[in-house]
Amino acid sequence: MQRLLFGNLIRKPQVAILSALAVTSCLLTGLTTQALGQTLPGLTLFSGVKAENQLPFRLDFGGQTNGIDRYILKIPQQKMKLAVAQFAITYPNYYKGKFDPKKIEVKVKGKKVALSEVKWDKEGRIIEIFPQEPVPAGTPVEVVFSNVLNPSFGGIYYFNCQVLSPGEVPLLRYVGSWILSIT
Questions:
Q1: 103 within 8 A of 146, measured Cβ to Cβ
Q2: From CA 158, how far away is CA 96, in angstroms rounded?
Q3: Which string of DSSP letters, residue by residue, matches 68-95?
Q4: Which residues pair with 153 in a beta bridge?
Q5: Could you give the CA distance from residue 164 to residue 85 in angstroms, rounded to a whole number?
Q6: What totals of helices (H) and strands (E) does the chain contain, helices first?
Q7: Residue 163, number of CB atoms within 10 A of its CB
Q8: How many CA atoms does the CB half-sphere of 100 hold within 13 Å?
């Protein structure tokens, strides 16, 4: 039996090479999929959030439980219809991570925006970010949370973004939601 197996491999080296190549490509594909798992949301089924309201994001350090991470929460330019004087980001009561308000920044077209204040209301589960100057309408924005301590239990967490435009009646407008997965 052993002679028969090895005899077939010797007679058909192409089969052996193709088999090895197939196994190797499957392994590499699996690793690549895992490495890209925490960038921008892909297809999300049954989230309760309409596709047009899902905002892109990136977790720089993989979104591991009890790990330090950096959340890059993006707001595309088509969602920025009005100038913004305040960002309000809410998160669910079962999210037990910790934020560092001193390490929160806003970037417009890759450049930091000067902030007058960042407030984290732990009981109200809201982070309020106040730029010194209103962020112009129609520009893509990144809200960067550095030095985040991820929760000790994994799960799906909905971070909702609302904005306040300058000179408006002080009523926050819903922009969209980031659906973060901590594993």
A1: yes
A2: 13
A3: EEEEEEEE-GGG--S-BSEEEEE--TT-
A4: none
A5: 6
A6: 2, 10
A7: 24
A8: 13
Give CA–CA dist 118/145, Å, rounded: 11
Distance of CA 45 to the CA centre of its chain: 17
Domain range summary for the chain, segments of one domain joined by +: 2-35, 51-182
CA-nearest of 71, 89, 67 to 144 is 71
pLDDT in tens, 99-154: 999 999 999 999 999 999 999 999 999 999 999 999 999 999 999 999 999 999 99
% helix, strand, coil for the chain, step of 5: 25, 40, 40
In angstroms, the CA 76 to CA 175 distance is: 10
- For residues 100 and 17, the model is more confident at 100
Residues sharing a CB contact under 8 Å with residue 80, sequence separation 6 or more, in sequence order: 135, 136, 137, 138, 139, 140, 141, 175
CATH for 51-182?
2.60.40.1290
